């Protein structure tokens, strides 16, 4: 073997090791860069959209998430809950949701939602900003036999039905607010981003 011959196996080994080290270094730079594109906690609090997995919300249950520093409730209404909505109209301040600032145009309907079974609503009373309590039971002793289920604000007694519409005689002047939202799939909804006209 001459002095000018080259050991190609060592060269292949060095090229392979250098490529692997370079790949790891590139990944080490790329991952933080990509992760930096996700909204920070501060950006989320300022209004970044929030994705919600609806498969985690069982029928009749409420899930609370945070959007813009406010509680947002996602309620999976049962057929019985939806049937109660039509029985409340004569007891409500704004049954047709005519106060347009309280919901996007695509939620100005009897259920105040895109999909009737899912109500997405900001959990802040329109009276003085307290957070109402979800009281889905019908006719509890403390709310009276005519209570059809909905939200009761413990601060000043405002009452809202299962479409978050305010009952007559409540201190709250308007229905609870419906935030902008859109469905990404059958089980995913994005709160804080408008779907546009439905």
Average per-residue pLDDT, rounded, comes to 85
Helix content: 10-25%
Stated plainly, the CATH topology of the largest domain is called Rieske Iron-sulfur Protein
Q: Count up the helices.
A: 3
> What's the β-strand tally?
9
CATH architecture descriptor name of the largest domain: 3-layer Sandwich
CATH superfamily of the largest domain: Rieske [2Fe-2S] iron-sulphur domain
What Rg, in angstroms, do the CA atoms define?
Answer: 27 Å
Number of domains: 2
Order of helices and strands: HHEEEHEEEEEE
Q: How is the biggest beta sheet arranged? A: 3 strands, antiparallel
First-last Cα distance: 80 Å
CATH class of the largest domain: Mainly Beta
State the low-pLDDT regions, or none.
Answer: none
**Which percent band covers the strand fraction?**
15-25%
Structure, explained:
The protein is α+β, with helices and mostly antiparallel strands. The protein has two domains: 38 residues; 148 residues, Rieske Iron-sulfur Protein. It is 21% helix and 19% strand. The strands form three sheets. The chain has a three-stranded antiparallel beta sheet, with no helix packed on it. A hairpin with a 6-residue loop joins strand 6 and strand 7.
SSE arrangement:
Layout: H1 8-35, H2 41-46, E1 50-53, E2 62-67, E3 70-76, H3 79-85, E4 118-122, E5 133-135, E6 150-152, E7 159-160, E8 181-183, E9 188-191
Antiparallel strand pairs: 1-9, 2-3, 3-4, 5-6, 6-7, 8-9
Record keyword descriptors for this entry.
19% strand, 21% helix, 198 residues, alpha+beta
